[in-house]
Design a protein that fits this description.
132 residues; 3-stranded antiparallel beta sheet
């Protein structure tokens, strides 16, 4: 779902300053927006090519080692041994495959049973986290 949205600079400094599985030009552009000191509240789009459009460009970015967050880039390690590499490759080349799988996953998540409480909130099992 990171095809839309932004992240605060405080959420990825290690990624852009210390990690090696990142496109160096991309890292430099993020560093300009997120300096080592200051800029903590600056935002960077999670999908640099189409941050306001729900599409499959996010996966193409991962193939180019341009995932903003560490956890995003972990979806594609590029050496063929990652368990999700094939999904990233498939989604990057076929938006219809991505849209279908995303839609199916959202329906499944919507069918996860919850517990209604007297208060206007929902507790999702098994984590027991209240959401208002």
């Amino acid at each position: 779902a990171h095809t839309i949205g932004q992240a605060r600079c405080t959420t990825f400094p290690t990624r852009i300053y210390n990690e090696t599985n990142i496109n160096s030009t991309f890292a430099t552009s993020l560093q300009a927006n997120c300096p080592r000191n200051g800029g903590d509240d600056n935002l960077s789009p999670l999908d640099r090519t189409s941050s306001t459009t729900f599409d499959n460009a996010y996966f193409t970015n991962l193939l180019s080692l341009e995932g903003v967050l560490h956890t995003d880039q972990e979806l594609f390690n590029g050496n063929g041994t990652g368990t999700t590499d094939s999904f990233v490759s498939s989604y990057s080349s076929s938006s219809s495959t991505f849209f279908t799988d995303f839609s199916d996953a959202m329906v499944k998540m919507g069918n996860v049973p919850g517990v209604e409480l007297e208060e206007p909130c929902l507790v999702m099992l098994p984590c027991q986290t209240e959401r208002t």
